[in-house]
Amino acid sequence: MKRLSIFLTTLMISVALLAAPAAKHCPNVSELPSEGYFPLSASTGAAAICTDKNDFAVVGIAARMLAEDVQRVTGQLPELTTKADAPTLPTVIAGTLGKSKTIDQLVKSLKIDVSGISGKWESYIITTAQHPKTAAQLLLIISSD
Q1: For range 49-74, the mean pLDDT
Q2: 138 has which bridge partners?
Q3: What is the pTM of this model?
């Protein structure tokens, strides 16, 4: 339960504050479209939120709660999906190392350093990247457990 609280708190702070300064491993957040910022919501719609159906149930619950928070703040409901093979639009991908095939593949292909959280309890990384196949903008939320 503590893991869920930390995970949700991190996500909600990113959505609700909209102008918070960037923390280590945390992308910039802004209420205005800007270069270098991940568009959680734009005039074209909200970024999709992707999880792995084989991941812990709490990840899906957190994704649904994030989608609801985005809708409350922006009026746009993000699509919840379990398919991240080739996104063409900005997508949030959340998952657990060793439980999410998508997260594991992206960590490997994008060479994301997870040594700081690997094998630890209740640790996570939030970072941005481009999808290796489609160049779509990604917001990656990678949990250790």
Answers
A1: 95
A2: 91, 129
A3: 0.78
